[in-house]
Every structure is written in C-alpha cells, then in structure tokens.
Amino acid sequence: MNSVQSFLIDAESAELNLLQREGATAVIDLAVQFSQLGKGSDIELISQVIGRLSDVQVRDFALGSHGEKSFDTYWNMWLYLLKVAPDGFIAPVACLFATLAYERGENELAFRALDRASIDAPRYALTVLLRRVFGSNWPAHAFARMRVELHPKVTAGIFGQ
C-alpha cells in the first residue's frame, strides 16, 4: 500500500493536470465505493483521495462533487476520512466536511471541523474563507448554489471539457 504522502501533488509537477485528473476521478470512485462498502473501502483509494486533496483543484472538484442524492454518502465519507487522515492532510478534508455540515444547518459542527483544519494548517486559505462565509450567516442554500455553479468550471479546468 502507498502512503498518503506518496499521493501528494507537487504544484510544479510536469504531470500536474494528469495528477489532478487522477485525484478527481479517485474522489468519485471512492464515493461510489463508500456508498457500497463504507469504512471497508479500499485503503489505497482512501490514501489516494486524501493525498490528492492536497491540490486546490482536486479539493475544489471534491467540494462540488456531491448532490442531493449522494449527500449522505459524502457526509459519511468525509467524516471517515477526517478521522483517518494523517497530520498535514487534515485541513482539506475538514473543510469539505465543514461545508456539508453548514449546508445541513449544523453550524456548530461546521465550525468545529474548521477548528480541526486550523490546528492542522493554521494558514489554510479555505479555512479562513469558510470562517468568513459561515460567520456572515450566508444562507446555506445560497452557498450550495454557488458551489454547484462553480463545479463545471473546476471540472473543465481539470478535464478540459
């Protein structure tokens, strides 16, 4: 099994776009697998997703990859990954989980997830942004709509569509 560290994406890599595509595909593959197997999902795939989320584009793809029907699957998946992610890889997962908690109206839980992200990476930009958004009491449905509207742009950037 490869470690999470082996899936870290170097922003200077000549294969950056390929690695981003692999990461985005891994997010979807894990969600499908997680819907069937839950915590019994492939550990290599879990490691790949956690590692690839180190890339902002992969993380932003993951942010918009769930819908109403898959919400609970992603909730359980991000919660589990938050529990197993090693230090240095927690912030992206915690932010993803925080957005789901916010959309579900569980603001206290959303802020606790952001606290976890801050402990892992004190200057993580998405944590700072989400604290502002959540603190402004922006309606969860408006946040969800923005997330859905941005997803095709992120997808196009990764997959060239």
Helix content: over 70%
Radius of gyration: 15 Å
Query: What's the helix-strand series?
Result: HHHHHHHH
Which word captures the global form? Answer: globular
* Uncertain runs: none
Structural class: mainly alpha
Number of strands: 0
- DSSP summary: helix tally: 8
* Main beta-sheet strand count, sense and barrel state: none
| Overall pLDDT | 95
Note the beta-strand portion: under 5%
* Termini separation: 32 Å
How many discrete structural domains?
1
Topology:
Elements: H1 16-37, H2 43-52, H3 56-63, H4 71-84, H5 90-103, H6 107-120, H7 125-135, H8 140-159
Question: Quick gist of this model?
Answer:
This protein is mainly alpha-helical. 70% of the residues lie in helices and 0% in strands.
Structure notes:
It is globular, with a radius of gyration of 15 Å. The chain has 8 helices and no strands. The protein has one domain. The mean pLDDT is 95. 70% of the residues lie in helices and 0% in strands. The protein is mainly α and 161 residues long. Helix 3 packs across helix 8 (140-159).
What would the keywords be for this entry?
mainly alpha; 0% strand; 161 residues; single chain; globular
